[in-house]
Amino acid sequence: MLENMKFLNGRVVEGIFLRIFPPYGEGDFSSADISVGLRLLGEKEMLLIFVSSEDNWAIKAAFVCVPKFKAWLEFERDLPAILNGEKEVEYAYVFYDVSGQEVFSEIVGKKIVSVEALTIDEDWEPFGLKLNFERDYILVYPNTDGSAFETKLYKHGRGLGEFEVMGGIQYKKL
Q: Which superkingdom is the protein from (predicted)?
């Protein structure tokens, strides 16, 4: 499944979006379901989104029509009240445009220089994906509530520690 992602080599990321299921009353943001979506140069109407598959702990990718989105500042402002269950939210995924955030400045407008699949030892099916840029990366993988991701400057989730206990994580170039 992830082997098909080699088409991303050399593509330029024009925008980055987060798809978040509001963590209402969870108290802790680290296990929230956050997927990352990329608008690639030349794909104005489509967004490539990486999400955790529902039947196993793996990442899948799909193109979707560019949805309506909110500004990231709205989420940052409301997050404490959402986590504490003080702010009512709709139980649906919300897209946030984070293209202008400084932590993603080495991704937006930059070329993907390589793509790697993450596996545990050599026998496992890929469970995650790493997109490498000249000075940054996007790492996507499943977590207990859905999807998680990290970059050089932004980390959501508990990291790869949940997978490291199952064996050595290996990066396989696609």
A: Bacteria
